[in-house]
Design a protein that fits this description.
The protein is mainly β and about 120 residues long. Helix content is about 0%, strand content about 55%. Strand 5 and strand 6 form a beta hairpin.
Length: about 120
């Protein structure tokens, strides 16, 4: 099975940018649909963006559309989430999830804090 590890989180000022990485080991990500999710304190986990394994189609939540970009580099077995124009409402733990053949695999999450 695949193991996913997120990185790239941290503290950033409003209007700033971060790039999150979701690195895979154990299996190639080529055949996995990958999604980024986030969970803020006291809130349910929500989907942010996803990219499929076939045509690399992408989908974004309305709250991040135009600001976040998901991409994948199969050669590096990594999926990225470029986050621009961050605001305090983006503060959350961000998780990546890989889906293959009806099975879901989650990473441990990385904290993103947007604050001045």
């Amino acid at each position: 099975q695949v193991q996913l590890v997120e990185s790239g989180g941290g503290l950033v000022q409003p209007g700033g940018s971060l790039r999150l990485s979701c690195a895979a080991s154990g299996r190639t990500l080529d055949y996995y649909h990958i999604g980024w999710f986030r969970q803020a304190p006291g809130k349910e986990r929500e989907g942010v963006a996803c990219i499929d394994s076939i045509a690399y189609g992408t989908f974004y939540a309305d709250s991040v559309k135009g600001r976040f970009t998901i991409s994948r580099d199969n050669a590096k077995n990594t999926v990225y989430l470029q986050m621009n124009s961050l605001n305090p409402e983006d503060t959350a733990v961000y998780y990546c999830k890989g889906t293959y053949s009806r099975f879901d695999y989650w990473g441990q999450g990385t904290q993103v804090t947007v604050s001045s």
